[in-house]
Amino acid sequence: MRDRLTRLKTATLTGLLVVNLSACTKITGSAFPDLTSNPAVTGVDVEKIAALESRMRQFVVEGDSMGIATLLVRDGKVASYTQAGVRDLLNGEPITQDSMYRIYSMSKPITGVAMMILHEQGAFSLDDPVSKFIPEFENLKVVKSYDLEGNVELEPLQRQPTIRELMSHTAGFGYGISGADPSNMQFRKKAVLASPDLQSLVDTVATIPLMHQPGTAWAYSVSVDLQGAIVERISGMSLGDFFQSKIFKPLGMVDTAFYVPAEKAERLADVFGYHPVTKNFQALPFADPAFNILGDISYRKETRGMESGGGGLVSTMADYARFCQMMLNGGQLDGVRILSKKSIDLMAKNVLTDSQTIDSTGNLNGTTSQRVGFGLNFGIIMGEASEISGYGDGSYFWGGAASTWFWIDPKNDLFFIGMVQQFPKPPPAVNPDFRKTSQQFVYDTLTD
């Protein structure tokens, strides 16, 4: 135990010493973003940028995270990049600019872009029924009522859920990551998220009743994996091949994929989980296999199941920055257009009613707000929520299960990305709020 603690302390200190040093491993590929230097960026306070970076590193110093990297881009320029802590705990290897991260639900916006590419091609209307492309769903049932004794009453669909509802988590599907309702319990019992391929996922979901009638409520769901199945059926390509040819290659996202090849494996950061017995964070997988409930974390092709558009990608800071800048630019980057500005605006427009609220931000901490909306595969910060938080009205965002997060703020022409690899411990309220803390410091840096 003493040796392990010594390695842990040494590794952490090693990681801290390399923060923002030019000797760090440099990213390769397209020029943007240049993480090696911070050029003069108008509209930000240099001293407050330093305070932002110090606070992000403090998460490691105080033991809230074993590793972190954050990026602030404003007006198309890197205003701040910082990194601290370790990528590989056992060997004491630090976080580097080219470290790879499991972005989990930050995959969802990318799948949304894939859907909108097909939408622009006229492949579907947002008001088309999902069953037009997934006929297995024509006879779905809906949970009408249930009790604690396990009695469940089902009812027929009043109408088919639409593609728009599928992209806004209002179609009624469950997910299985939480919830004691019959739908989510069936998702867990039938191990939907462990499906070997998207056809198997569709077949299983077709046997599970919806949580509610389509369009009546917001519930975080398997809908983005179903979008992946639709992309495959319309395009005739695997989801990974579609992403590569239509999004990753055009944008120069050279390290974003569903799998990590052997030659890149050492760049994949450790992911940490809270051990229910020892009551501390440990690098996964745990020594006791009985507690490894999160599935494969190596992302080797031979050990992965389906290509999950809802949470299956790995990426780097530079790659995800190129995706965010493309969105902020209205659908294009470096002269390459992925989507029209009209489609970007549509994705970032709230589609929820005043009575519908969201209870997630993509992380596992959960949230409930009557002032946060949802568009097409993005959460939307609007109105009172932006006034209270400081986010620009109409900012859009999401996060990932291992505590990654990002937001895009068109009003202030900025985006921010945070990369951490740590599943929160229960209860959610005891975990550090990376997003809120970074938001407070980011908007304090702005001078115009």
From TrEMBL:
GO molecular function: hydrolase activity
InterPro entries, per database record: Beta-lactam-related, Beta-lactam/transpept-like, Diverse_Enzym_Activities
Keywords: Hydrolase
Stretches that traverse the bilayer: none
Beta-lactamase-related domain: residues covered: 53-429
Entry superkingdom: Bacteria
PANTHER family: BETA-LACTAMASE FAMILY PROTEIN (AFU_ORTHOLOGUE AFUA_5G07500), BETA-LACTAMASE-RELATED
Protein name: Class A beta-lactamase-related serine hydrolase
Gene source species: SAR92 clade bacterium
Species classification: Bacteria, Pseudomonadati, Pseudomonadota, Gammaproteobacteria, Cellvibrionales
